[in-house]
Amino acid sequence: MVRFFVDPETLASDSLILTGENAQHAKVLRLRQGEEVLVCDGAGQECLCAISESSGTQWALEVLERRTPQSEAAVAVSVYMAFPKADKLEHVIQKATELGAREIIAFPSARCVSRPDDKSLKKKLERWQKIAQSAAEQSGRGIVPKVLTIPSYAEALARAAQADKALLFYENEQALTLKMALAGEYATVSLLTGPEGGLEEGEVAQARQAGLQVCTLGKRILRCETAPLCALSAVMYDAGEF
Amino acid sequence: MVRFFVDPETLASDSLILTGENAQHAKVLRLRQGEEVLVCDGAGQECLCAISESSGTQWALEVLERRTPQSEAAVAVSVYMAFPKADKLEHVIQKATELGAREIIAFPSARCVSRPDDKSLKKKLERWQKIAQSAAEQSGRGIVPKVLTIPSYAEALARAAQADKALLFYENEQALTLKMALAGEYATVSLLTGPEGGLEEGEVAQARQAGLQVCTLGKRILRCETAPLCALSAVMYDAGEF
């Protein structure tokens, strides 16, 4: 079913009108009176709606049923990624959204070759959030993952460490597998991975100090954009999502 | 450690010379006499070598130790993908190689919008194989996955069905999870996914008939290039790789 994201205020009323890009999208899809669509506020509310009026340029909707999103994972996974080159971050935002991440957080680390300056950051965050929204629509999510940046590695570690399972993946770790690290119950997971050049040994030690477990993702070296998606897929599998 | 792939014949002798792109690569890396590198035949043989002579344009190597590759997964996974648009297939070849797939097979299905004609296929296969080789070098694999195409859907199913676990992923399947399908022992796995527009119901029935299990990858709709990599990551996790 087609899925639109709107502001929570728009969804407060039982009748609403599609505007802006949503109206454009409805036009492309040639939606007609009587057809059913889903409208979400992107924060956990999903409404089954019927098109009550369609002029060909304007679409009025009536809410038929309010419900919690049915496509969200029970486990809340936060993907922490050291700033990679721009196209890789966009790739990870799109794919991690499809795979069900709850949030995607970019942070600096010693070997990051790319890091947006403060001036361009606001615009980039808007762009990244839009990529997440678009991927959420396409994959049928009820929540749009938040994309955020954290200004320091230490702060990223402190935030990541709050999850039930806070995991850092490091290519020189061989003993602790992800499977061991995920043993037991968990409702929240942080997955932290390094930039193109990897994390420095000192940074890995710092993460351990902050309370993260340091795990392996297997015997092969994964690219910086592959590692978080591999880990996220495995966590969703472990959590019983598929 | 740096890794070169050479023909099996080159690796038959205990002293060898790097040629072509390998020599180029050695030059870029400024490899010097005494340094150790890995040389693989891409088919299961890996040799630890030392650089015995380096002229700056030519590199002679001595084999120190012959061994089986240490970075290969015990489970042999074949990724069967309905022809997507070209850039997506290349993406999947690169990533599936990193993630440890043993082979990547493209095949036609009813809703494929893109399918190379026979004339261009040979050139494309060369290109795809090169992408796999390059990803194998970077990720430290001992085997270069074979990239092949199969001319019909029925033949793809028949080949896929020979694995211990032959699985097709379908967005309308909800009951059978990948976890259920992987229960028990297995040494070989086939993972089959559809093109951009999905597989047709009749094709899914045909796959069942051919002996494949039809599973879900969760409640979210994955893009055609995301599904095989998500499934492959989960199988590697399930098989105890990380």
Structural notes for this entry:
2 copies of one chain form a homodimer. By secondary structure, chain A is of the alpha/beta class. Chain A has 2 domains: 3-67, Ribosomal Protein L25, Chain P, CATH 2.40.240; 76-238, 3-Layer(aba) Sandwich (Alpha/beta knot). Chain A has 7 helices and 11 strands. Chain A has helices at residues 20-28, 86-98, 118-139, 153-160, 178-181, 201-209, 227-238, and strands spanning 3-5, 15-18, 36-40, 46-54, 59-67, 76-82, 103-107, 146-149, 165-169, 188-193, 213-215. In chain A, the strands form 2 sheets. In chain A, strands 8-7-6-10-9-11 form a 6-stranded parallel sheet, sandwiched between helices. A 5-stranded mixed sheet of chain A has the order 1-3-4-5-2. In chain A, helix 2 (86-98) packs parallel to helix 3. The model of chain A has no long low-confidence stretch (mean pLDDT 94). At the A-B interface, helix 7 of A face helix 7 of B.
SSE topology:
The structure is a homodimer of 242-residue chains.
Chain A: E1 3-5, E2 15-18, H1 20-28, E3 36-40, E4 46-54, E5 59-67, E6 76-82, H2 86-98, E7 103-107, H3 118-139, E8 146-149, H4 153-160, E9 165-169, H5 178-181, E10 188-193, H6 201-209, E11 213-215, H7 227-238
Parallel strand pairs in A: 1-3, 6-7, 6-10, 7-8, 9-10, 9-11
Antiparallel strand pairs in A: 2-5, 3-4, 4-5
Helix pairs in contact in A: 2-3
